[in-house]
Amino acid sequence: MAESIAEYSYPNNNSQMIFLNQELGPALERIFNDSNSLGNLSVALGNVSIQNTEIIMQAVEISNISDLQSFVRCSVDFANFTKVIVNGKWVCVGPCQTNVNFCSEHGKCFNEINGPNCQCDRSNFEEFYGSQCELYRRRAGFYGVLFGSLAAFVLLLIVVIVIFVVLYRGRSRTSSKRKLSSIFGDVFFDFTARGDNYNLHKNVSLSEETVSGIYRPYQENAPVRPEPQDVRMSNE
């Protein structure tokens, strides 16, 4: 006759605790009631006869993982750590895990010995700051891009205005030339020097100014000469 006592320690795992409490006893009974298992045990004990195997399970004192809370300790040297159940296990977590909004959702939280610390988000254009990244401000890069864009826009606007003015003046000059052409028609300037005067002439067709056998030059400013007259001398 032999009596054995087996002691099992509850692991920090809810599924393994359920196995120890509910499935370990039936599993041992199946093993000892199997002839092959008993034959192997008999050989191991010196070919002794094994009879009347009985397994008695102690009453369950801890039924689930929550009952282990009083036995769990956080041994880390960090402030404000607490124990919580994560995925069926007890774990020690810091304030960064228990308060996910500690850094106002604008930074990364790190657990340190003296407590949580925030590394705030920042870029070339903006940044968050403060003990919990609760403050916000724009950086020099933002204003550089802003004023640079405004300067580029103003320069582009000036170029467009200059191009518009140049095109408008060119169109105005073309329009003025057309107006002058329509006003003067066939009038032309004769810059032939005649004293200190310059004559403005108009093209006239030859049929209007000439007759057969007669040539009549068109000279407005030519000096007028008296036609010769017959002079009669008398003795009186």
What does this structure look like?
Strand 5 (126-129) and strand 6 form a beta hairpin. The longest helix has 45 residues, at 140-184. This protein starts with 13 loop residues before the first helix and ends in a 27-residue tail after the last helix. Mean pLDDT is 75; it is low at 198-222 and 230-236. The strands form four sheets. The protein has a two-stranded antiparallel ribbon with strand order 1-2. The chain has a two-stranded antiparallel sheet with strand order 3-4. The relative contact order is 0.05. The chain has five helices and eight strands. It is 35% helix and 19% strand. It is α+β, with helices and mostly antiparallel strands and 236 residues long.
Task: Give a brief rundown of this model.
The protein is built from five helices and eight strands; from the N terminus they run H-H-E-E-H-E-E-E-E-H-E-E-H. It is α+β, with helices and mostly antiparallel strands.
Which key phrases capture this entry?
single chain; 236 residues; alpha+beta; two-stranded antiparallel sheet; 5 helices; disordered C terminus; 8 strands; two-stranded antiparallel ribbon
Shape field:
elongated
Number of strands: 8
Query: Portion of residues in helices?
Result: 25-40%
**Major sheet strand order:** 1-2
Mean pLDDT: 75
- Termini distance? 204 Å
Share of residues in strands:
15-25%
**Nearest-angstrom radius of gyration?**
59 Å
What structural class should be given to the helix and strand makeup? Answer: alpha+beta
Note the run of SSEs as H and E.
Answer: HHEEHEEEEHEEH
Low-confidence stretches: 198-222, 230-236
Number of helices: 5
Please give the largest β-sheet.
2 strands, antiparallel
